[in-house]
Specification:
14% of the residues lie in helices and 34% in strands. The protein is mainly β.
Length: 162
């Protein structure tokens, strides 16, 4: 699927209740068969605070280069750099980051009880551009600014563009 005639839209609604998901993605959910699921892409925006060890040990999951068959990190980065994708007023500052992650949703708009391995990707705002990069959760302290869900809207082309 080519996404050239689509625009990334970051809905700033933190309400990801089944009712809200059914309203946002009603046509996609109606097409699902009984055992199929929908890839809901959630995003979380963070502000960088400082470099500091978190006193935690563990294993990091690394970001992937694509989070669905059609949605690559390159595409997300390109769209973020093309213009403001948020549905609210936001101007990124140096060090801000955004994480896109997949949640699998059933036909009723509810998350699957058992999610497959985490699929996510991360972008950091550096030198006035979004770059494909991620912070280390053990050493980089960030603060959550906002979260929401990603939608992709079809762009209406005008005769001038053709």
């Amino acid at each position: 699927m080519c996404l050239q005639d689509h625009k990334l839209h970051l809905c700033g609604c933190s309400d990801s209740s089944p009712e809200r998901i059914k309203k946002l993605f009603s046509s996609e959910l109606k097409q699902l068969k009984r055992k199929e699921y929908f890839h809901l892409i959630k995003w979380t925006l963070y502000k960088y605070i400082k470099y500091e060890w978190s006193d935690m040990d563990g294993m990091l999951f690394l970001p992937t280069d694509k989070i669905t068959a059609q949605l690559t990190t390159e595409y997300l980065c390109s769209e973020m750099n093309r213009g403001n994708c948020f549905d609210f007023e936001f101007t990124p500052t140096e060090g801000d980051s955004i994480i896109f992650e997949v949640e699998h949703i059933n036909k009723n708009g509810r998350p699957l009880k058992r999610q497959p391995d985490p699929l996510f990707t991360s972008l950091i705002f550096r030198n006035n551009r979004w770059t494909i990069e991620c912070y280390n959760a053990f050493y980089d302290k960030t603060e959550e600014l906002k979260k929401g869900v990603l939608t992709i809207k079809k762009v209406q082309s005008t005769e001038e563009e053709l």
